[in-house]
Automatic annotation (TrEMBL):
It comes from Pseudacidovorax intermedius. Residues 140-276 form the Dihydrodipicolinate reductase C-terminal domain. The gene is dapB. Residues 16-137 form the Dihydrodipicolinate reductase N-terminal domain. Belongs to the DapB family. This is 4-hydroxy-tetrahydrodipicolinate reductase. InterPro entries: DapB_C, DapB_N, DapB_N_CS, DHDPR_bac, NAD(P)-bd_dom_sf. It catalyses: (S)-2,3,4,5-tetrahydrodipicolinate + NADP(+) + H2O = (2S,4S)-4-hydroxy-2,3,4,5-tetrahydrodipicolinate + NADPH + H(+); (S)-2,3,4,5-tetrahydrodipicolinate + NAD(+) + H2O = (2S,4S)-4-hydroxy-2,3,4,5-tetrahydrodipicolinate + NADH + H(+).
């Protein structure tokens, strides 16, 4: 009888992953998730120039030696990796992607706040390398997008639609990428263009609500991980569809599902609907 290889034996490791924003909230979560996954291996860790973590072991915050030093040298950080997981800022992601393209490294992008021009550039880059990009990697949020599509179609007249989101005090973009995606899903389901019907906050004498609009409200405070509610307000009733994250672990686990989905793919731009089979 042949013994099965140990779960952590090198023969089971198939995904060599670099993590960008290695000292960030998501960077830490991802390094921990990669460490815990039998089929993943940390192959690079990036932080930007000036970061106090440069040169230290990427696992130090967990008290373990990963053998990977945090670097700001993109070619050194990506050289040994098959894939980059990037949760940073749009300008950082764009710089990282340029090197990924050069080296043939795939990418899972969780960063939010891209401009339309940056999104178009990412679609161009995806002609050369395979990319999964999504404003929210959690399974629950992506299922919520599907619920919203169904609700919007069923409640297409007589209901005012408002997207309300709350996040921690450190978040720099608003509305959240997830809230914007919720707006897009609803607008698409209703045959509207979000660019034309979105209302981002209200102040002063606004006049009565235009029923064709989709409103957004943003709350920032404390350590809220991420709450999203879509309100369909009708006459005599309200429907609320909510998702609340109480941990970032779901974003990291979703990212690893995206890593596995990309295995063997040469190019193309995908999202979590592709990864989760929700399209
Ligand atoms: N898709 C999803 O499921 C999720 C997406 N996000 C998104 O991920 C991103 C990061 O979130 P979070 O981890 O909370 O943020 P943090 O601020 O905690 O971490 C960001 C990391 O990126 C680094 N960074 C910032 N700017 C640059 C740059 N120009 N180039 C390279 N690195 C840079 C930071 O370095 P430094 O510390 O030096 O500034 C830090 O290490 C946000 O856009 C957020 O919206 C977050 C959670 C889930
Ligand atoms: O910055 C965050 O924290 C989060 N950002 C993402 C977004 O902008 O939607 C996803 C999640 O809500 C957490």
């Amino acid at each position: 009888m042949t013994a099965a290889p140990a779960a952590s034996s090198p023969s089971t490791v198939s995904h060599r992953i670099a993590v960008a924003g290695a000292s960030g909230r998501m960077g830490h979560m991802l390094i921990e998730a990669v460490r815990a996954a039998d089929d993943c291996q940390l192959a690079g860790a990036l932080d930007r120039e000036g970061s106090p973590t440069l040169g230290s072991d990427a696992g130090a915050f967990l008290g373990f030696a990963s053998g990977v030093a945090v670097t700001a040298d993109l070619r050194a950080g990506l050289g040994g990796a098959q894939l980059l997981i990037d949760f940073t800022r749009p300008e950082g992601t764009m710089a990282h992607l340029a090197v990924c393209r050069e080296l043939g490294v795939q990418a899972v992008i969780g960063t939010t706040g891209f401009s339309e021009a940056q999104k178009a550039e990412i679609a161009e880059i995806a002609k050369d390398i395979a990319i999964v990009m999504a404003p929210n990697m959690s399974v629950g949020v992506n299922v919520t997008f599907k619920l919203l599509e169904m609700a919007a179609k069923a409640l297409s007249t007589g209901y005012d639609i408002e997207v309300i989101e709350a996040h921690h005090r450190h978040k720099v973009d608003a509305p959240s990428g997830t809230a914007l995606k919720m707006g897009e899903v609803i607008a698409d389901a209703l045959g509207r263009d979000l660019k034309e019907c979105a209302v981002y906050g209200r102040e002063g004498v606004t006049g009565e609500r235009d029923p064709s609009t989709i409103g957004f409200a943003t709350i920032r405070g404390g350590d809220i991980v991420g709450d999203h509610t879509v309100l369909f307000a009708g006459t005599g009733e309200r429907i609320e569809i909510s998702h609340k994250s109480s941990s970032r672990a779901g974003y990291a686990q979703g990212s690893l599902r995206a890593v596995r989905f990309l295995a063997g793919k040469k190019n193309g731009l995908f999202d979590m609907f592709d990864v989760l089979g929700l399209r």
